[in-house]
Amino acid sequence: MSEDQKKKRRKKNYLLRLIIIVAILAGAGVLMHIDYFDVNGVAVIGNEDISDEEILRLSGIEMGKSIFDVHPFIVEHRIRKNLYIDEVNVDRKLPDKVEIRVTERRGNAQFIMGKKYVVTDNEGQVIDISDEEMPATLVENIKVTGATNGGRIEVRDSGELEKALNFIRLTEDNDLFFKRLSISKNHVEAHVFDELVCVGKYADFESCIQSGTLKSVLYDLYQKGTEKGTVNVYKNDYCFFTP
């Protein structure tokens, strides 16, 4: 066989392979868009405060569209636009299901900025700026100088901010919640209700919270239906209630 004949055969083989590849890809494209692979169910897992409907709206997933048109990376990026979402993972479950797993970011603290309420997680990242008070501990004595969604809250005294956030992390870790909080230097006022307040030094609060003493006292008051008075927090894990 001459060299020219060999070249012609190689060219024919190359064209044949190319045609086969194109045909396979075209066939796969058609197959991927048959009704069998149309999305007919989306499961949302892990959400507590954010509704399934809100997550589905953000995802942009359309029922009846091919599951192969659902691109996990793009869907995850869309859902993360809600700053209350910390983590999100999207999986396609062939032939026709999609699973969305989320971890929510909590609004642990809120601060007043003018007529707005700035809600942050317990690291100080802003996750909401609201016209209304939200279900998070209101830190009353910290002056906010700036806030943008997704950024870190800007305050006049960063030391006081860190102290307040550390306090809120401590209460969260020990299953406690205070409606309002004011920390000035080493003095703490933490409101359970509007008229039931815990007062004491910062270090004494830390000790009484970690030991479970404060939680025990507050639980006893809750059982009695007490919503007014003062819990004095002292050193050596001692708390005293004054009606």
Characterization of this structure:
The protein is of the alpha/beta class. Helix content is 35%, strand content 31%. The strands form three sheets. It has a nine-stranded mixed beta sheet, with helices on one face. Strands 1-3-2 form a three-stranded mixed beta sheet. Helix 2 packs across helix 3 (72-79). The longest helix has 30 residues, at 3-32. The model has no long low-confidence stretch (mean pLDDT 89).
Helix/strand structural class: alpha/beta
How would you characterize the largest beta sheet? 9 strands, mixed
Give the uncertain stretches in residue-range form.
none
Average of pLDDT: 89
Counting H and I runs of at least 4 residues, what is the number of helices? 6
- Strand proportion, as a percent range, falls in 25-35%
Q: Globular, elongated, flat, extended or rod-shaped: what is the shape?
A: elongated
